[in-house]
Amino acid sequence: MSNTSPPKIRVFTKGSGGPMAIGKNHASWFICHAKPYGMRAKRASFGLNYIKGPNSFLPPSPETGHLRFVVSDYMDVLQNELLPLRDKDGNSAIKVLAEKVDGNPIVEVLVPPAELLSACACCGKWESLGAPRFLRCSKCKARCYCSQDVCFIALDMVI
Asked: Residues of 41-74 as b/e, b for ≥16 C-beta within 10 angstroms?
């Protein structure tokens, strides 16, 4: 691990709502509460992507390097959930591309991967705004783990 601190989670607002973030858990994308919300400490607020077959898994954009995904129920998701999101500088979280998969549009994520909210690959716990960032897998660099002591030990027992 390096001595430099990881980038902070990019926070968005939508209207008068609380802080939200774009999150990724394995192949699934979510709009999440940036901090635990409500009596049940809810985190994932809304599922965003459409996964059906190998065409649903997209590599990063060859032009920009940005991550991409196929939007599910696209009219509602785009108009009500994704397009209204703005960060503190007024920037959008996504760009809708002209390309489609099975009739659903492809979205390019304008947030750098290091600023996305991540879920633990072992227990499913989400990162939280203001808390230390999760550790990334040194091999694949994609998976995150909430605790070296708990989840790394659990993985050793499973493998």
From this structure: eebbeebbbbeeeeebebeeeeeeebbbbbbbeb
Note the pLDDT tens digit of each residue in 67-100. Answer: 999 987 667 777 778 889 999 999 999 999 998 8
- Contact between 119 and 125 under an 8 Å Cβ cutoff? The reply is yes
Which residues face 148 on adjacent strands?
A: none
Tens digit of pLDDT for each residue in 127-158?
Answer: 888 888 887 776 666 777 777 565 655 555 44
Give the 3-state secondary structure of residue 54: helix
C-alpha to C-alpha distance for 22 and 113, rounded to whole angstroms:
10
**Token match 């939280």: residue?**
128
**pLDDT(125) > 90:** no
